Structures are given as structure tokens and as C-alpha cells.
TrEMBL record:
Cofactor(s) for this UniProt protein: heme
Natural source organism: Anopheles stephensi (Indo-Pakistan malaria mosquito)
Keyword line: Endoplasmic reticulum, Heme, Iron, Membrane, Metal-binding, Microsome, Monooxygenase, Oxidoreductase
Single GO cellular component term: endoplasmic reticulum membrane
Family in the record: Belongs to the cytochrome P450 family.
Residue positions binding heme: 448
Record's function text: May be involved in the metabolism of insect hormones and in the breakdown of synthetic insecticides.
InterPro entries per the UniProt record, alphabetical: Cyt_P450, Cyt_P450_CS, Cyt_P450_E_grp-II, Cyt_P450_sf, Cytochrome_P450_Monoox
Membrane topology, record value: Peripheral membrane protein
Compartment(s) where it occurs, according to its Swiss-Prot or TrEMBL record: Endoplasmic reticulum membrane; Microsome membrane
GO molecular function: heme binding; iron ion binding; monooxygenase activity; oxidoreductase activity, acting on paired donors, with incorporation or reduction of molecular oxygen
Protein name: Uncharacterized protein
Main location, first listed in the record: endoplasmic reticulum
Biased composition range(s): Basic and acidic residues: 259-276
């Protein structure tokens, strides 16, 4: 009895001191509206018993009902949901809001650009930025054209009245393109089953990691390691790492002298003259890893590759699959995109300069990503008090920015926000909206390093496919439900049909 009393008194004293140490946080939290919070567990009950599909619908309904910003508690952690573009801009551009919350550690990429602590990220991002310079991106175009042309030929076997899931093919395609351009290793020699297994395994692994976020009882690492989910994660991580190890082995085989190999040394003399200083991501990573002061150990080196591979693979595959699906849903717009392609580049490779002329395609891509976003939300943790318009966010709070809600907010997109309309991205309409109303790859200093690469690679692939095939689908946009994950998933497969275009060259 004495022991129990002692434990109880100790717990009460600890809790009081804990509250006192966070007095400022609680003061600022009280100024932000939010749902009812229970003592100790906060708002956790709002997520209990809901699968990813149900959770998206529930959170969307909740966010539309409550004002922004909105406060919630995940146990002892203060969550602040912000979806007003002007406030989002303040958060993402603040030098004191570059840190990501502890939940990003669940993805086991805390040494790569995706989840690295702010100090490490800042140093590595500065060193790696040049690997996506305009000169480097332009140097990728010939290879992207070659891979897109090869993919288009493979689609020839799919021409029929039967539907097929294009995502499986695109997951393999984007893995090959990201590795052959940014990582300097051509994985097209690998068997299809190996490449498809990598993509499928990675998606399942990171989906499980994301679901751990809203299962608070799995947050403590020592408890998580006692579960079957941890054992499955370890098995999947081992398989996941095999691909980046292959990349490393290929690169090492190409540089017996121990010096980084310049991927342009085997190119045509004209290419070497045009891109004399262009270094892709892997070349730059190899270069900076030789300097101990940059703090890139062997595990960190591999994590940078893992981050680039999965980030470029799954996001691009999902965005392209979604776009081919919506092209099939809206044949009038598909024809408009096709006619534009035929005016800009009716045959042969797509040039770097051609890409800026594809305005209808860009509008269509953006509208697809608006309604079917690649990422549903991102999160940041202020290290100091951050002012977002008239609201002060305390250090230690977790700021959630829900792209999913922002992209369908009628206050930003009008009464028809739920309707598919690429004209939302006409220049005059964009000029009327806040620039942070649509930031699919994030924005500010910690945006996606491969954002411009993503747009270029997607446009080139779409040019080759739409130029050769007419796309159809039986799926309607209102039938699609989104599932919250690291990369947003659909409740349906990407089932499309292909028909050869008679005018294709």
C-alpha cells in the first residue's frame, strides 16, 4: 500500500512539474480552437477504429467544420493544423521551422533528405542542390526520351479492349528512369519481377510505417519492437535495401580507381561540351561523402540513395498513373493535350525547350494532382516560437499542413472545388489565388529537391504515350476514394484501355 501511495504521489508531482515546464506551450495552445480533448490522451479517440480510407473522410469533414488553425492533442503532443495559404507560407519559409516531427523516424530514413534532422538536412541539402541544376536536368532529357520511347513500345502489347493496371508498369518504369538518370546505374537489365517486387515491397513497408503514426500505442520504440509489425518491417527493410546496395555496387564497379565516375564521359563530345560541369545526384553524393566534415557515413550514404529511389519512384509512378486515369476519364481534354503535343513535338524526342510550351498538359497534370494529391499532408516542428500571421506557434508543437484539404477548399477554388477542371490553372486564375494555395511538392527551403525533375520526367513520358495511344477507362472520378499514406493511394486500381492513334508517327 505504501509503495502504491508513493508511486501515485510521484506520478502526480511529475505531472505537475511536466505541466509547469510547458506552461508557455499550454498558454499558446489555449488560443487556438480545436475539438474536445481528454486528459492525458488528448484527441486520440478521434482516430481509433478507423482504417486509412475512413480516416481521410473523417479528418476532411472535421477540418471543414472547424476554423483554421485547428488544435488537437496526440497524447502530450500539441498538433496545430494550418491550411490558410498565407499562414502556410509563414511556416514553410521560417528558418525556425525546418525540423520534422519524431514520426518521420518511423520511415527509417533519418539520414537522408526526407527525414534528416534540420542541422544535417541544411548542410547536405546545400551540397546536393546543384545535382538538380538546369544544366543537369537538361542533360537527363535524352535518356528520359529513350526510356519513354521504350516504355511506349512495351505498351503496344497492351492494346486491346481489355483494361489493365498501368501502375505496375509505371512503377517499374520510374524506378529505371530515376536510377539511370540521378543515380547513374541502369537497372533495366534487372528482371521485371525484381523491379516490381521492389516497388510493391516499398509501398507496403512505408504504408505500414505511416499507419504507425496514428496508432499511438506503437510510438514507443521498445513496445513497437515487441510486435509482429516490427518483424515484418525488418524483413521488408532488408529487401528494400537490396536495391540501393545494387546501385552502390554498380557505381563501385565503374570506378576502380576510387574516384567518382563522370556519367558524361561516355557520352557524345557535343554533350560533354554542353554539360561540362553537370554532376547528377550520385556523382555529387560520392564527391561530398569523401569529406569527413560532411558527416555522411556508409549508412547515411545508402539512405540518401534509398530516399532518392523511393521518392522518385513511387511519387512519379502514382502521379503518372493518376494522370493517365484522368486522361481516360476526360476524352475532350485528352484530345486537347494530344493536339498540343502534335503542334509542339509531332514526332521524335521531346526537347528541353519543348516542355515549357506544353501549357495544356501542365494544367491537366496540376489539376490531377490537385484532386488526387501525391502527398496528403506534411508536418514541421518549430524550434522557436514562430509567428504565422496572427497566431504564435510554440516550439515543440507539430504543425500539420493538409494539402488534401487545401486542394479542395471552396474558399480557395470556388464552389466547384470538387469538380475536375484544368482551367483552374489558367494564368489569370492562378494570379487571383495565393501562391501557396497549390504546393504539391511542398515549398520553402525544405521543398522536394527533385521537384523540377519530376515535372520534366512526367511531361516527357506523357508526350510519348499520348502521341501514340488513345486512353480510356470505365472509372469515374467520383468513385475514387483516397487512403491516407506517405504517398496517397486510391481505392481502385489504375485500370485503363489503349487504342493506337492512326495519326501517330
Amino acid at each position: 500500500m505504501i509503495v502504491l501511495v508513493f508511486i501515485g504521489v510521484f506520478a502526480i508531482v511529475y505531472y505537475i512539474n511536466f505541466r509547469r515546464s510547458r506552461k508557455r506551450l499550454y498558454e499558446l495552445a489555449e488560443r487556438i480552437p480545436g475539438p474536445f480533448d481528454y486528459p492525458l490522451i488528448g484527441s486520440i479517440l478521434l482516430t481509433l477504429g478507423k482504417d486509412p480510407l475512413e480516416l481521410v473522410a473523417h479528418l476532411m469533414e472535421l477540418m471543414h467544420q472547424l476554423p483554421s488553425p485547428m488544435r488537437a492533442w496526440l497524447g502530450p503532443f500539441l498538433l496545430v493544423v494550418i491550411d490558410r495559404p498565407e499562414m502556410v507560407q509563414d511556416i514553410l519559409n521560417s528558418p525556425d521551422c525546418l525540423q520534422k516531427p519524431f514520426m518521420y523516424d518511423f520511415f527509417r530514413l533519418n539520414k537522408g533528405l526526407f527525414g534528416a534532422p534540420a542541422a544535417m538536412w541544411r548542410r547536405h541539402r546545400k551540397l546536393l542542390n546543384t545535382s538538380f541544376s538546369p544544366a543537369v536536368l537538361k542533360s537527363f532529357v535524352p535518356k528520359l526520351n529513350a526510356k519513354a520511347e521504350q516504355f511506349t513500345r512495351e505498351l503496344d502489347d497492351k492494346v486491346s479492349s481489355e483494361c489493365f493496371d498501368v501502375h505496375t508498369l509505371l512503377a517499374r518504369y520510374t524506378l529505371v528512369t530515376i536510377s539511370s538518370t540521378t543515380l547513374g546505374a541502369d537497372l533495366s537489365v534487372e528482371r521485371r519481377e525484381v523491379l516490381e517486387e521492389y516497388s510493391s515491397n516499398a509501398i507496403q513497408m512505408f504504408t505500414a510505417s505511416f499507419e504507425r503514426i496514428y496508432k499511438a500505442w506503437l510510438h514507443p520504440e521498445f513496445l513497437y519492437q515487441m510486435t509482429s509489425a516490427f518483424k515484418e518491417e525488418q524483413a521488408r527493410m532488408k529487401l528494400f535495401k537490396q536495391m540501393s546496395r545494387k546501385i552502390i555496387n554498380i557505381r563501385q564497379a565503374l570506378q576502380p580507381s576510387g574516384k567518382p565516375k563522370d556519367d558524361l564521359q561516355d557520352s557524345d563530345p557535343e554533350d560533354r561540351q554542353e554539360f561540362p560541369k553537370a554532376k547528377n545526384f550520385i556523382e555529387r553524393l560520392e564527391e561530398i561523402a569523401t569529406d569527413p566534415s560532411n558527416s555522411i557515413d556508409e549508412d547515411g550514404f545508402q539512405q540518401h540513395i534509398d530516399t532518392m529511389m523511393f521518392g522518385g519512384n513511387d511519387t512519379s509512378a502514382q502521379a503518372l498513373s493518376n494522370t493517365l486515369l484522368t486522361l481516360g476519364m476526360y476524352p475532350d481534354w485528352q484530345e486537347k493535350v494530344y493536339q498540343e503535343i502534335m503542334e509542339v513535338a509531332p514526332s521524335g524526342p521531346i526537347s528541353y525547350e519543348d516542355l515549357t510550351k506544353l501549357t495544356n498538359m501542365e494544367m491537366f497534370l496540376k489539376e490531377t494532382i490537385r484532386l488526387l494529391p501525391i502527398t496528403g499532408l506534411i508536418a514541421r516542428v518549430p524550434t522557436k516560437e514562430v509567428q504565422a500571421q496572427d497566431v504564435t506557434i510554440p516550439p515543440g508543437a507539430i504543425v500539420l499542413i493538409p494539402f488534401l484539404k487545401m486542394h479542395r477548399d471552396k474558399a480557395l477554388w470556388g464552389p466547384d472545388a470538387e469538380q475536375f477542371n484544368p482551367d483552374n490553372f489558367l494564368p489569370e486564375r492562378c494570379a487571383q489565388r495565393h501562391p501557396y494555395a497549390f504546393i504539391p511538392f511542398s515549398q520553402g527551403p525544405r521543398n522536394c529537391i527533385g521537384m523540377k525533375y519530376g515535372w520534366i520526367s512526367m511531361k516527357i513520358l506523357l508526350c510519348h504515350v499520348v502521341r501514340q495511344y488513345r486512353i480510356a477507362t470505365d472509372i469515374k472520378l467520383n468513385e475514387i476514394k483516397l487512403s491516407l499514406s506517405l504517398v496517397m493511394k486510391l481505392n481502385k486500381k489504375h485500370l485503363i484501355r489503349l487504342e493506337r492513334r492512326c495519326a501517330a508517327s
